[in-house]
Structure formats: structure tokens, C-alpha cells
Design brief:
four-stranded parallel sheet, eleven-stranded mixed sheet
């Protein structure tokens, strides 16, 4: 992997290369969204299934009509109020949008990132950037340039270092292709905020087909085995039956395990992935994580913990 500046990153993208770049959520592994060969390099570099859609990053909502057939009132409202920001909208794709972007589906996932360096890169490149997270498929998403470097990409991948991300959890994904906006993945904008903007409740589409990024049952997983528990009593019981080097991420220490304070609210979301990477680096065999209350950002944190724990 090679470090580049903004000008070099934009040139790499225009020429069909790959660039890992910061957003407010996590680092993305970007390619120009209108180049099938460049997009193929993303799937090869990550080891990502080609049926798994990518998110198209736009410089502004004004570019939306170039990618989608129609913009329902709910989608327009969400874009006007919550973009730039960690919200991805799923809409019917316009003719000409590549199958490599959509996973062969008739929908496309789009968002406008809030990170100033991501927006500067989009302006300098002059084209939309399709980008999943800048890690090997299924691994913990990177929230710093150091995390991206640790993934072991070769020198065909350039890195635009923007320091640590702000939110450090992926975007919320909402499907607005029907009359009822539907939550596909909780993320950096909580459901309550989205519902307030809409003036209506979101439907829950999380248990259905993996039709958007990050919907696979097993995802976001470190090398260590992850176990989700509801409370300290369940953590104690699990530790008692576990062997090897055990860590507990929760509200209070538990005998028999390395303790890491989980934190609360947005602080917990910002530390989750870094904690998992640090425990992996310390060669823990099992990481037991206490689930948060599933409201606000806690819904997204619990989602990521469960998907990490679902890894075979």
C-alpha cells in the first residue's frame, strides 16, 4: 500500500485505480463508479462477492438524478435534511448504472459523505466513487489509516490518510423504493432522527434478503471468536465455560477475563471497532461483549456485535 496526497488520489481514481480514503463513518476502498474494470479491482482486492452491492458516494444531492430513476418525496426529504452525513438511500437505479455497483439488482445505494477530505476527493476526481469499507471482506471495518494499512493491501491500492474517522460506524441504510421507507441497516444516524425527519415510522427490513451492503448475517468480525451477552451474569457464565485468552467488553470487570470498558452512546460506537482490532492484536481467543440498550446509536452497535458473533 502506498500513501498519496489528494491530487495523486484523484488522479489514481480517474485512471481506474483504487484509493482507500476517509469518510466520517469508516475508511472506504474507492473506485470510479462508472468504470467496470476499476470496480472489479475492488472485489478482487477485498475478496468480496460480486453480488454484494457497493455504495456510490456523491459530492452533493444534486448528482442524485444521474444515478436513480425517480426520487420519491421521502428520499428528497431525507437527502435535503441529512446529507452530507452517514445515511445511505437505496433507490431504483437509472439505466446505465453498472451491475458491478448494484450487485445485479435494479436498485442502487447512494450517499453524500460529510468528511471534508472525502468531499474534496470527490470534487478533485470529478466522478462518483463507489466504495465499500477498506478492509478484507467480512473483517472489522477500518476507522483509521493505521487500520487500513494493517489489512495488507498491496501497492496497487493507494491510501489517502485523513486520520481517525468521526462516527467510526458505517452509515444507516434506508430503502425508499416503496411507499414505506424501510430500515435495512442501522448505523451512524439513529432511527429516531430519521423518523423525526420523515414524520413517520420506518418499516424494519433487517431480516430479509441481503440487498444492501452490510446485511449479511455474519460480518464485521475479528479473528477472535465473538460472543454477545445480555448482562454481567451471562458474561460470568460464559467466561466460566470458556478457555484460552478471554476478553470482556462491558459495563464492569468480570473475573477471568481481560476487561475493556464498553463506554456508552456515541462513545461506544466510536470505540467498538478499534477495541476489536486491539484485542485481536493481543491474540485473544474469545471476546465476550455486553450488548447495549437497543435504541439510538445502541441499535447499530448491537447490530454490529451480533453480526461479528455470527461468524462461523
Amino acid at each position: 500500500m502506498r500513501d498519496v496526497n489528494l491530487e495523486q488520489a484523484a488522479r489514481t481514481l480517474r485512471e481506474g485505480g483504487l484509493v482507500a480514503f476517509p469518510t466520517e463513518t469508516v475508511y472506504g476502498l474507492g473506485a470510479r463508479a462508472d468504470d467496470a474494470q476499476a470496480l472489479d479491482r475492488v472485489f478482487v482486492a477485498k475478496g468480496r462477492p460480486r453480488t454484494h452491492p457497493l455504495i456510490v458516494h456523491l459530492e452533493s444531492g444534486a448528482e442524485l438524478e444521474a444515478w436513480v430513476r425517480e426520487i420519491p418525496p421521502a428520499a428528497r426529504r431525507l437527502a435535503d435534511v441529512l446529507w452530507p452525513g452517514p445515511l445511505t438511500l437505496v433507490l431504483w437505479r437509472r439505466a446505465g448504472v453498472l451491475d458491478a455497483v448494484t450487485g445485479g439488482r435494479d436498485t442502487v445505494a447512494v450517499r453524500v459523505p460529510r468528511h471534508p477530505l472525502a468531499l474534496a476527493l470527490l470534487r478533485a476526481t470529478g466522478v462518483a466513487i463507489a466504495a465499500p469499507s477498506a478492509n478484507k471482506f467480512g473483517h472489522v471495518s477500518p476507522t483509521s489509516a493505521a487500520h487500513v494499512r494493517a489489512e495488507g493491501f498491496d501497492d496497487s491500492v493507494a491510501l489517502l490518510d485523513g486520520g481517525e474517522c468521526e462516527v467510526r460506524l458505517e452509515s444507516t441504510i434506508v430503502d425508499v423504493t416503496s411507499g414505506v421507507p424501510t430500515l435495512l441497516r442501522p448505523g451512524g444516524i439513529d432511527v429516531e432522527t430519521i423518523e423525526e425527519v420523515l414524520g413517520a415510522k420506518l418499516a424494519d427490513g433487517r431480516g430479509g434478503e441481503a440487498r444492501a451492503p452490510g446485511m449479511l448475517a455474519a460480518h464485521y468480525a475479528p479473528r477472535a471468536r465473538v460472543v454477545a451477552v445480555r448482562d454481567l451474569d451471562e458474561a460470568r457464565a460464559r467466561i466460566a465455560e470458556s478457555s484460552g485468552k478471554i476478553a470482556f467488553v462491558g459495563s464492569a470487570p468480570v473475573s477471568g477475563a481481560t476487561f475493556v470498558s464498553a463506554g456508552e452512546g456515541a462513545a461506544r460506537a466510536r470505540t467498538l471497532y478499534a477495541t476489536l482490532r486491539a484485542l485481536d492484536a493481543d491474540a485473544h481467543d474469545e471476546v465476550i461483549i455486553e450488548l447495549p440498550e437497543e435504541r439510538g446509536i445502541g441499535l447499530a452497535v448491537a447490530d454490529r456485535i451480533r453480526r461479528a458473533a455470527a461468524k462461523p
